[in-house]
Amino acid sequence: MNINLDSRSSSMLSFEFAGIFNVRFLSLVFSMCLLLGVSSPLLGQSFCDPSFAPTGLSATYTPGSGVLLSWDAVPGSVGARLRVFLPTGGVNNKNIVGTEPAMFFVPEAALLEGSYLWQVAAACTLMPSLSITPFSAFSSFVVSLPTSTCPTTVAHVDGNVYPVVTIGSTCWMEENLDVTHYNNGDLIPTGLSNAAWESATTGARAVYDNDASYRSEYGQFYNWYAVNDARGLCPTGWSVATAAQWDDMASMFGGLSGAAGDLKTTGTLELGTGLWYAPNTAATNLSEYSAKPAGYRRNIGEYGFLGFSGIWWVACQGTATRSCGRRVYHDSNAVNVDLFLKVYGFSVRCTKD
Fold first, then answer.
1. Which parts of 20-61 fold into alpha helices (H)?
2. How far apart are CA 296 and CA 51, in angstroms?
3. What is the span of the domain harbouring residue 48?
4. Do 188 and 107 fall within a single domain?
5. Dihedral pair phi/psi, residue 148, rounded to 5°
6. Are residues 177 and 294 in the same domain?
7. Which of 33, 91, 113, 144 is deepest in the core (most CB within 10 A)?
């Protein structure tokens, strides 16, 4: 597992001052700087000096939570670059955009047990050409992880064995469900025509494009009626992941607006390195959830979005005709929260009760 320290994009507004400044212009500059939160030499604020490295590095590790890396803010800086040396010998980098950044939090789920070294440099400009200070002196911290109570694998009555990953305090299947029977042994119907799929009011399953070769990589799709069937899709002692569990997982990796990258598998189809179409925004799989772009079966029975998105049913109340899902895209770092018609076919992940 790596600490994925990925880049976040941002834009920056710069001002160029020339000529003779009068009182009215100084007032305008002052107002604009207050409004936009930028520094101005006219206000007596310091410019970022690219020749001085950051100082005052400190790391606070809280078991069960994560480690807070902090340093003395460099006046006038507009970003920072972290360099973290892992216990395995690898190196990861994180670019931070913001006004005079002075801290970064790494959730425990992203940490390995062992000793770390880290340093930080400040960015004085983000516009080409970049102006970066030297890296600071090294600082260190040690992580001692609690013993996981999750099993390493879980088996279903079908005989399938799924790897298990610990994310926070929850045990998650690391792969999409791929079962042909309910947990009591009853067969889940499949092979439905588009018309039959659209009109279904009981559980059904499907494989993308009705091509069984997709099962090993992406699992199967299930309509909501199968997900909600009392006979159970998940192994004994496991259940379909809840909205609260999804939200807890997302909160560990930047929240719903910024967690998708840390859930998605890495690489792109274009480069031959992964399953997602480019750009596979911010993908790191830091969480080890290993989200894959399985696509889905639409309410009218057609298949789509293989390589572009992954969608999972979520255990929730929903409405008479719709229920909850979580979706991630190839070109976004957000985890989308949606209500879908119950006849859609989506992927399923189970969590330990």
1. 23-36
2. 53
3. 23-142
4. no
5. -70, 140
6. yes
7. 33
| 72-115 tens-digit pLDDT | 999 999 999 999 999 988 888 888 889 999 999 988 878 888 99
**Residue 38, exposed/middle/buried by CB under 10 A (0-12, 13-18, 19+)?**
middle
Which SS3 state, helix, strand or coil, does residue 15 take?
coil
Q: Name which of 345, 347, 337 is nearest 298 in CA terms.
A: 345
Same domain for 138 and 157 = no
Whether residue 329 is found in the same domain as residue 202: yes
Q: Looking at the structure, tell me whether residues 131 and 269 fall in a common domain.
A: no
Q: Which helix (H) or strand (E) holds 195?
A: helix 194-199
Structure-block tokens of residue 332: 């976004």
Q: How far apart are CA 296 and CA 348, in angstroms?
A: 11
CA angle in degrees (0–180, nearest 5) for 161-163-166: 145
H helix or E strand, kind and range, residue 260: helix 260-263
**Residue 177 and residue 29 in one domain:** no
User: pTM, whole model, 2 decimals?
Assistant: 0.71
Q: Phi, psi at residue 132, to the nearest 5°?
A: -120, 135
| Rounded Cα–Cα distance for residues 142 and 117 (Å) | 9
Flag whether 168 is in a domain. yes
C-beta separation of 242 from 208 below 8 A: no
